[in-house]
Amino acid sequence: MALLARRNLLHDKVRFAVTLTGIVFAILLMVVQFGLFLGFMETTSNNVSHSGADLWVISKSVRYFDIGGWAPFSERKLYQILGTRGVANATKYIVQYIVWKRDDGGTENIQIVGFDPGSKLGGPWNIVQGNVEDLKADNTVFVDDLYRERLGITHLGQVGEINGYRARVVGFTEGIRSFTTSPFVFTSFKSAQNYIRLPEEQTVYVLVTAQKGADLEQLKQDILARVSDVDVYTTAEFSWMTQRYWIFTTGAGVATLIAAMLGLVVGVVVVAQTIYATTIDHLREFGTLKAIGASNLHIYRVIIEQAIISAIVGYIIGISISFAVVYLSRRNEAAILLPWPIAIAIFGLTVLMCVSASVVSIHKATRIDPALVFKN
Amino acid sequence: MEAAVSVKNLTKVYASGEAAVRAVNGVNLDIHGGQVTMLMGPSGSGKTTLLSIMGCILRATSGSVRIRGEEVSHLKERQLPSIRLAHIGFIFQGFNLFPALTAGENVEYIGSLKGLHKAEARRRTESLFEQVGLAEKYNAFPEDLSGGQKQRVAIARALAGDPEIILADEPTAALDSQSGRTVIEMLAALAHDRGRAVVIVTHDNRIVEFADRIINIEDGKVTDRIS
C-alpha cells in the first residue's frame, strides 16, 4: 500500500514536482502572511513585552504604549507605589516622540525611551554592541542596527542631536523595530527627561516588579487603592491593549490580518487543487485496484498515504525556504516572525489540508465507473 | 457440475425513461470450468457490460448472478471486492498494469491484497513469471515491456489470487498476431489444463479456434450459442 502510494508519486517526477510546488507555495504564502501579522503584533508592543516588568502604571487617559508621553503624571505616585505591600521594585519610564538631528543636518522622527539603567526594567534587548551600564552617563543612547542609516550613525561614539542636546551612541541593538516607523532610541530616564523637557518631578509610566509569589491581581487592586488617577495593567494586558489598538483602529492592522487570513485560504485552495489533481491523474489505477479486489478502504489508504507523503516532503521544503525568508527578513523594517509553535501548527495544517483534499478526491475515486477499466 | 458463473434473466438498463438503454436484456448463461467461452458481437452489443456484471464490478438492474453457487446480486457494494479477489482474475485490453510498480510488484500486489506474507507473495509471483515465460523481466517496469509481455504480466496477475474464473476483455486487441496467439494459448491452457473457467470478450476472429463455446450477443441478447 505504502509502496504503491510512494511509487505513484515518484513515478511521474514532473507531476510530483508540480504537487510539491503547490504545497511549498501554499506554505510560503501562509508563513509570509501570518509571519507579517505576527511581526506586526510583536512590533506594536515589543517594548512592553520585553520590559521585564510585572505591572505597568499609566495615566487613566492612555490606551496604548506609544502615546504615554502625552499624559505624564507626578513622580510622587512612584513613592506611593513603592510603599505598596507586594511591590519589589518600581521605576520611572518615558516614551515620547521627538526629533533626531543627524550630522548632515537632516532630521528624523524618533521615539525616545527613557528607563533606569540600574534596574534595566524597560531597557533595550538584543544588544549587539555596548553595555546598558554605559547609559548611566548623561546624553548617551542606544540605537538599533536597522535604523543606523536613517539616523546617520555609522559607528559607536558618534554623536547626534536630540532637541538641542548631544546624543552620543554607546550601543547597538538588533531587531528592535518600531511599528510607527519612528525608531526607538534608548537612553536613561534622566537624559530622556532632558530631551523631552519633562518637568523634574514627572514620569510617563511606572514599571513595577512584584515580590516573588505575589498575586498580581491583588497587587493591581492594592496600587489602585493607594494611587489616584492611574490605571494598572499587567504587562500582558498592556501589550494586548497596544496590539489591539493598532490592529483594530488602524487600517494597516486589519489589512494585515485580512491578508493573513487570505493567505491561509489561498494556501488551502492551492493545496486542495494540487492534491485533487494528483489523485484524479491516477483515477484509472484506482479503478484497476477496485477491479482486482481492493476494498474502498484500501483505496482510501493509498490516496491518503500519497497525500501525507506529499504533505511531509512539501512541508520540509516549504518550511526550510520559509526559515530562510524569515532569516533574510531580519534586516528589514517589516518583520516576518515564525515561532516554532507556528511552524509546528503549519505542519499540522499542511497534513490536514492535504488529507482533506485527498478525501474529496477519494469520493471521486471510489465512485469510478467500473467500465472505465475496460476502456482502452 | 456446478457452474463457475451462472446468470439468470439478467438485465442491465442504463439511464431511465425514454433515454433508457437495455445493455443486457434477459440473458441466461452458465460458464463452466475447463472451458474457454468467447463472447462475441458487434460494438455496443453489451458484451463488456455482461462481463462486468459477471465480474461483480457492475451491478445488474435485475436478475441473478451466482459465483460458484453463491448469489452475489444482492450483496452490498462493500462485500463485492472480496468476491472478486477470491474468485475472479481480470485481464484487460489496455493491460492496466500499475506503471509505477515493476512487473513483479504488479503481481505481488494481489498477494498483499490477500494478506499473504511478502516472502510468500514473492515466491508465488516468481513461479507465475516462470509459467508465463517472463522470469527475466521480474524487475522491469511496464513501460519497458512489449505489449505481449505486458499482457503476460497481466495474466500472471490474474492468476496470482488463484481464481477459478478468468475474465478477459479483448486480451489480444492491442497485440500483434504472434503475441496475441501466445496469450490466447496461455488462456486456453489455463482452461484445459488447470480447469479454470475462462471468458473472453473478443472481436478477433483469429482466436476463435481456441474457443470451446462461442456466445453471440446483439442488442444485449444472446442470439447464438456455438459449442
Structural notes for this entry:
- The complex is a heterodimer of chains A (376) and B (227).
- By secondary structure, chain A is an alpha+beta fold.
- Chain A has 11 helices and 12 strands.
- Chain A has helices at residues 2-11, 13-49, 76-82, 148-151, 189-195, 216-226, 235-248, 251-281, 283-291, 296-328, 340-365; strands spanning 55-59, 73-74, 87-101, 107-115, 127-129, 140-144, 159-162, 165-173, 184-188, 202-203, 205-210, 230-234.
- In chain A, strands 1, 3, 4, 5, 6, 7, 8, 9, 11 and 12 form a 10-stranded mixed β-sheet that branches. A two-stranded antiparallel sheet of chain A has the order 2-10.
- Helix content of chain B is 32%, strand content 26%.
- Chain B is an alpha/beta fold and 227 residues long.
- In chain B, helix 4 (118-131) crosses helix 5 (147-160) and helix 5 (147-160) packs parallel to helix 6.
Alpha plus pi helix count of chain B: 6
- Contiguous low-pLDDT stretches of chain A (5 residues minimum) are none
Distance between the first and last residues' Cα of chain B: 17 Å
Task: Note the beta-strand portion of chain A.
Answer: 15-25%
Low-confidence stretches of chain B: none
| Global outline of chain A | elongated
Characterize the largest beta sheet of chain A: strand count, sense, and whether it forms a barrel.
10 strands, mixed
Structural class of chain A: alpha+beta
Helix share, percent of chain B: 25-40%
Biggest chain pair interface: A-B, 26 and 34 residues
Principal-axis shape of chain B: globular
Number of strands of chain A: 12
Radius of gyration of chain B: 17 Å
- H/E topology pattern of chain B: EEEHEEHEHHHEHEEE
- Biggest sheet overview of chain B: 6 strands, mixed
Overall mean confidence score, pLDDT of chain B = 90
Structural class of chain B: alpha/beta
What's the helical proportion of residues of chain A? 40-55%
Distance between the termini of chain A: 25 Å
